[in-house]
Automatic annotation (TrEMBL):
<keyword id="KW-0677">Repeat</keyword>
<dbReference type="GO" id="GO:0005737">
    <property type="term" value="C:cytoplasm"/>
</dbReference>
<dbReference type="InterPro" id="IPR021133">
    <property type="entry name" value="HEAT_type_2"/>
</dbReference>
<dbReference type="InterPro" id="IPR011989">
    <property type="entry name" value="ARM-like"/>
</dbReference>
<dbReference type="InterPro" id="IPR016024">
    <property type="entry name" value="ARM-type_fold"/>
</dbReference>
<dbReference type="InterPro" id="IPR000357">
    <property type="entry name" value="HEAT"/>
</dbReference>
<protein>
    <submittedName>
        <fullName>PP4R1 phosphatase</fullName>
    </submittedName>
</protein>
<dbReference type="GO" id="GO:0019888">
    <property type="term" value="F:protein phosphatase regulator activity"/>
</dbReference>
<dbReference type="InterPro" id="IPR051023">
    <property type="entry name" value="PP2A_Regulatory_Subunit_A"/>
</dbReference>
<feature type="repeat" description="HEAT">
    <location>
        <begin position="115"/>
        <end position="154"/>
    </location>
</feature>
<dbReference type="Pfam" id="PF02985">
    <property type="entry name" value="HEAT"/>
</dbReference>
Length: 260
């Protein structure tokens, strides 16, 4: 029964945490039994079971409970299979979503060598606009996961494609993540490539795209500032923040005390 398999998936994370705490007694139980179950349920015929399996997988990754070897040898291969060009549409959309969400939880080498080539292919998926939409919405996170060199060499050309996509929702998603993409590139790429690209979005024929671009204008401009002097930095959640200057911090300790 699908409901039984769904309930089972919901119990996997707490069981995994228990086994991790009791590792001397159960040294291999998690890797031998639970990981294969989670991986298998990613391809379950029932949509609800697959969703529960995906949520369980992400929790295990967040808690750092899956070994790097199991991620590369068991998890990534099944995601690459599900996101292949000839894969079922529903499975492909789900696989792309997982790849984008798990990218920030894996090592840079794993993302770059195992997942990045497939992500680049999916950005150009001509069959499903939903796949391209997921790629566009998570583009900044992927750039952050692989770093500047891979971003400029492999991802920026794909970003240009998505920014000129025929579906306006794609262009809007690109405008919304523009600051995160820009933050990962060098000042020269920002100036010579991304600035003209941003102008095209801010001049887009669709008002929703233009509105999203105008909302991203300030954050995009902030990426040109020197973080050490401007105090601007990107938090882990991708939002822009301002670090108080040393002068401001010192001033808090130098307020005159009127009672003295």
């Amino acid at each position: 029964e699908p409901t039984v398999r769904t309930e089972l998936m919901e119990q996997i994370p707490p069981i995994a945490m228990f086994l991790q705490e009791s590792r001397p007694k159960f040294p291999t139980a998690f890797f031998e039994y639970l990981v294969p179950i989670v991986v298998r349920y990613l391809t379950d015929v029932n949509n609800q079971v697959r969703k529960a399996g995906q949520e369980a997988l992400l929790i295990l990754l967040e808690q750092d409970l899956i070994a790097q070897s199991d991620i590369e040898n068991k998890v990534c291969p099944i995601l690459l299979e599900l996101s292949a060009p000839d894969s079922d549409d529903e499975y492909k959309v789900e696989a792309v979503n997982i790849i984008c969400k798990m990218a920030s939880m894996l090592s840079r080498a794993t993302v770059e060598h195992m997942l990045l080539p497939r992500f680049c292919e999916l950005c150009s998926d001509g069959k499903l606009f939903q796949v391209r939409k997921i790629c566009a919405a998570n583009f900044g996170d992927i750039c952050n996961a692989v770093g500047q060199e891979a971003t400029e060499r492999l991802l920026i050309p794909k970003f240009f494609e998505l920014c000129s996509d025929s579906v306006w929702g794609m262009r809007k998603a690109c405008a919304e993540c523009f600051m995160a993409v820009s933050y990962t590139t060098s000042p020269e790429v920002r100036r010579s490539k991304l600035s003209p690209l941003f102008i095209s979005l801010i001049s887009d024929t669709c008002r929703w795209v233009r509105q999203a671009a105008f909302q991203s204008l300030g954050p995009f401009i902030s990426t040109f500032a020197n973080p050490s002097s401007a105090g601007l930095y990107i938090r882990e959640d991708g939002t822009l923040s301002i670090r108080p200057s040393t002068q401001d911090v010192n001033s808090n300790f130098c307020q005159p005390n009127n009672n003295i």
